[in-house]
Protein 1
Amino acid sequence: MRRLLVGIVCAAAVSGGAVAAPSQPWRDARLSPDRRAELLLRRMSLDEQIALLHGHFPVLMKAPLPGAPRSAGFIAGQPKFGIPAITESDASLGVANAGRDSDDAAPLPSGVALAATFSPALAFDSGAMIGREARQKGFNVLLAGGGNLARDPRNGRNFEYLGEDPLLGGTLDGAAIRGIQSNHIVSTAKHFALNDQETGRQVLSANIGEAALRESDLLEFEIAIRDGRPGSVMCSYNRLNGIYACENPWLLTDVLKRDWGYAGWVMSDWGAVHSLAAAKAGLDQESGTEIDKQVFFDGPLKAAVKDGEVPAAKVHEMAHRVLRGLFAEGVFDHPLAPGGLDTAADSRVSERVAEQGAVLLKNAGGVLPLAARAGKIVVIGGHADIGVISGGGSSQVIPKGSVRMPPPKGAPAWGGGVVYHPSAPLAAIRARAHGEVAYVDGADPAAAAALAKGADVAIVFATQWSSEGVDTRLNLGEGQDALIAGVAAANPHTIVVLETGNPVLMPWLDKVAGVLEAWYPGALGGEAIGKLLFGEIDASGRLPISFPKREDQLPRPELPGLKSAMPEGGATAQPEPPFDVAYAEGSDVGYRWYAAKDLKPLFPFGYGLSYTAFRYGGLKTLGGQGLGVSFTVTNTGARAGIETPQLYLARGPHRTQQRLLGFTRVALKPGESHRVTLTADPRLLADWDVAGHRWKRDAGRYEVFVGPDAADAALKGEAVLAAATLAP
Ligand code: BGC
């Protein structure tokens, strides 16, 4: 009887969250997460606490663990305390299906496509969508969006990240995290920090000065963590200034936990723990222990406590952070209820990202939109008859109907090849075209050119695969440049649709009429491309990453760690021995580098065409304690469209550095004007003062500009600001 009563009281506590069984006071959702964690920890033995601090990698386990989905991470629950099992899934671009063949989760477009929307609202919606799917699929911790800055346009994981700017990336990352966590599950910010290339990621040391780091990669995380409050943060594989990120006390304890007041837990990347020093440095949880040399955060940690080498209070603090994170997001109070997935509705969220994130880079003579053209269309290459390409690695989502192709020559097959999501651009074009639509795969460039010759329009689909564990080349590869050049020579109305994870060089740019960068467009990517090509919606994406003209424009023309020329399929694997990457450009990442060196990229950060035109006017600036601007944007064209005005710092009183200070999206009908106000984020007006350990803004004159991209100062202004300091 007594047992039955306890069961009833506990059930009430779990479902409503407000009533606690007297014996389990931590179940009372009215108490603070910290208080609840403490109440629970009082009852837990050292072994029970340590059980929270290391996780399995179910995909690699021969015998499945009871209750563990086949995914990236699992820690068994402790039912006697009501601690739920921690079920982790990768989710940079949707709930990933590690080890499964096909699935009902909706794949999002690449992160860089999301960044190209410049839309925190859409970032929230896509986070909310994958968070909902995660609950429905039985996951309560998502190893979600990466926030690494695109320091190198060849980083093979840029497609999972949010571009090269700390304000844009951090703001969108924060919004996506909030979206995920709105489902009472935990989101993770990763990979902390400076895992900015894949070549040698487990051995390289990313070397950079403190101020430069705080003003760039760390600023992205600072903004994301401040805005999103993720329950967990994942430390990265690489060393930072010589010390592994997961055992770097400066990074994990001084910056993250002390300076930023981060209250959640730090988990390691899979296989990124090398010693118990990690616990002392600030790592709270060792992930994916099946691939570690040793499970450091189990027996060895217990022995270190017994020997007095690690204080018991340290283990208590580590377990506190894990429990606190779970309590804070409501994981205890809102148990998972698997089932009820609506893939079609979720795919529509993905489609909105693809629609708003594709960037129209060239549109000579108004070749697009195609709606008005009645003649024959020839579609060439890129497996446009099958679907749209996606990125590989742990973030891979493989929906039902996907088609796998072998990876390009020389590239490793991570997760079974190159996955095409089943949304064929060819079908979307056929559904909209007025005349005949022919298709050739482009394997025979001469035949493709001959077919293009007689057509009104030729659309070449060009793809480049990226994957975790591999960096990319700047060339499209696989003979696609020659294919495009040949088709363009045969037909002046040649349009190139790029499906790439990274910027690519375009030796044929002058010869083609149109270029649309569609990135990896996800679940309904083909449909989104069709709508954009035919002008059913405006082209409104803007580049979140600069496109270089040539490799020699980059801070490091050659990718560090490469032992020989990069093979066709990209650089592979983990070179030994360890090597250094000197980030000598400091915080001059991306467009800041081009501005500092007075270089003209192929396409600048922020750039993208619309099907209409906009005029900027009437800039007013406001200085004093903060910087604000107002200005008018007018749609001067004949169609409705969306503009993304951007506010940049050009020069401060004592330092010249271009910085994005603010941005927004404005939808305007033909002839319509809108008065836009933007306020600069205070951290972006300040420099990091190493000696004073704070953000410091000098008094004086700040030159700013407003425009459609980082290289177009449509309106220039200045403001006089008072000196200010800001705590980290
Ligand atoms: C990746 C992480 C991922 C983890 C688990 C690692 O290889 O770097 O992003 O979350 O695997 O799959």
Note: The two ends are 55 Å apart (CA to CA).
Protein 2
Amino acid sequence: MGEVFYVTTPIYYVNDMPHIGTAYTTVAADAVARYQRLKGRRVFFLTGTDEHGQKVAQAAAERNQNPQDWADSMVPHFKETWRILNISNDDFIRTTDNRHTKVAQVFIQKLKDKGDIYLGTYEGWYCVYDESFLLSSQIVDGGCPECRRPVEWVKEENYFFRLSKYADRVLKHIEENPDFVQPESRRNEVISFIKSGLSDQSISRTSFTWGIPLPFDARHVMYVWFDALLNYISAIDFGSNMKRFEEIWPADLHLVGKEILRFHAIIWPAMLFAAELPLPKRIFAHGWLTVEGQKMSKSLGNVIAPKELVDEYGADAYRYYFLREFSFGIDGNFSRRTLLGRYNAELANDLGNLSSRVLTMVMKYRDGIVPEPKASGAEENRLREIIPEILAKLDVKMAALAFNEALSAVWDLVHALNRYVDVSAPWSIASDPSKKKELDTILYTSLEGLRILALLIYPFMPETGRKIWERTGMSEKITQARIPEAANWGALRPGSKIVTGEPLFPRKPE
Ligand code: ME8
């Protein structure tokens, strides 16, 4: 089971447009997916949209639209956002897809047949924004503990899932598998929440109709979270193509924001236990982003669409910034000043200049032909030796989802290459015919370093990685390259032709 590396994002509600918060998780998942592919793993990377429930129904009603039409009109915005950010998802699941609703119905029927679902009455608080049932003890200042919005008092006939029956098993699993819920601090929160006692979970609604009808009682629609969590198995053909399902399931990694960890770390595992399915290997809850120090919200008018930043900086600078600036597990604050600062210092200066000066010198001194290196000296050896170290560090940091540290390790190579060019000063020997071999070696070494660098930045900045790779004269596609083999020294063939190309990251006025 699970031969494929399976990584997921949350499926996003279609009540509103995608923004830099939603894109944060998707970009991170893409870096993971691309890194795993680069390592030669078969990858299945899933994202999608969560289209049922009261919140989406309300969003549609406010625009006098029926919810399906509304969802249909919103989905292209998500797809387009992932396209401009160069997201390499293998599938896009919608909870209104027939393939999903069928699986959701089969699944819930299975639990009903098992006796894990019973009819009751829910009376309590409900937060429509978070689509969550809340205990009175959870209410903070009369509002939702998560989003602080007003909550509704609900009394309706609901089906309940025997969550309490599985509480001990879920707890035991979390305690025995330290990697299952991460980071550590959030894992502890989940553990104490379970220890405080779990009641059964309401899993249907009767006060509106926008949802998947229960197969055993069509007066009820499925609770949107029960429906949504099942996307992770409906997209891989649970129930219809079990061979495929078993190749992909269990998920290696569910990436989620911290506010939805409980659904993923408590309800989802209990649902899977009830259905006798293996649990995902790892659930990682990242921090929450604010904008210029404030929570992103429509009422504050500070919601940023990724397109706005991509138009200004390009997709790769966007991806670089969000992965480099923040520590994934903790909250972060987006600011235009830090984006511009990193763009100019790390992309225009460090990386862009490195690439352009190396390529320009090869063009100028060797007519754009990769020279044959001769005996290497201490500086060359030093550069070559750090590459395996950087690869090893990158691997450790990617496994920990410490994207900022992974990029910092990659930048060690950027700095080492810049330093190498500086100390070797090829321009100072370029006109001396007796130094021809020395110059050949310096140019080859810089180019080969640049080629390897292209590979390492590819998961984070796929277009830039591809461009640098091709400019150094590689004819094989970067998508075919695998690490660590492709990062071995010497793959660049003397005699190939380099290309200088347009500046990768033109400097911006500060
Ligand atoms: O919760 N900072 O969908 P959603 C960081 N449909 N990440 C953010 C963010 C921010 N300010 N804002 C959003 C749902 N996110 C459900 C999920 S999954 C079976 C169902 C990201 O549209 C983060 O990943 O509200 C968060 O968990 C997700 O978007 C919430 O998206």
Note: The chain has a mean pLDDT of 96.
